[in-house]
Amino acid sequence: MNPSDVLKRPLITEKATMLKGMTNAVSFEVDRRAKKKQIQEAVEKLFKVKVVEVRTMNVSGKVKRRGRTVGLRPGWKKAVVTLKPGEKIEFFEGV
């Protein structure tokens, strides 16, 4: 799998911003089939940083209603990548 296919988008939320400040960890939405080792290699190759730890979780899709019709948003996979102390990803610095 190509590194740019593994990482879909960065997650810029209040919780992700707090994690970045406290533990030097950044969050990404990743491909559902991606393994931890693939995520680590993709972050290291694309952003030229050293990764200490990768934690992943599957996020369930939310149930949404419109009148009587009930639907389900698709689920996705989230990765929290902890960077080596002193390393940073410039993409997140303005956030």
Short summary:
With 95 residues, the chain is of the alpha+beta class. It has three helices and six strands.
Account of the protein in words:
This protein has helices at residues 3-6, 14-23, 36-47, and strands spanning 7-10, 25-30, 51-59, 63-66, 69-72, 76-83. The protein is of the alpha+beta class and 95 residues long. A 4-stranded antiparallel sheet has the order 1-2-6-3. It has a two-stranded antiparallel ribbon with strand order 4-5. The protein starts with a helix and ends in a 12-residue tail after the last strand.
Which key terms come to mind for this protein?
6 strands, 4-stranded antiparallel sheet, two-stranded antiparallel sheet, Alpha-Beta Plaits, 3 helices, 95 residues, alpha+beta
List the helices and strands in order. Answer: HEHEHEEEE
Shape: globular
**Low-pLDDT residue intervals, each spanning 5 or more residues:** none
Domains (count): 1
Q: Order the strands across the largest sheet as they lie in space.
A: 1-2-6-3
* CATH fold-level topology: Alpha-Beta Plaits
State the total count of DSSP E strands: 6
Beta-strand portion reads 35-45%
CATH superfamily: RRM (RNA recognition motif) domain
**Architecture (CATH level 2) name:** 2-Layer Sandwich
- Count the DSSP helices: 3
The chain-level structural class is alpha+beta
Mean of all residue-level pLDDT scores: 93
What is the CATH class?
Alpha Beta
Radius of gyration: 15 Å
N-to-C CA distance: 29 Å
User: Helical proportion?
Assistant: 25-40%
Largest sheet: 4 strands, antiparallel
| Quaternary structure state of the chains depicted | single chain
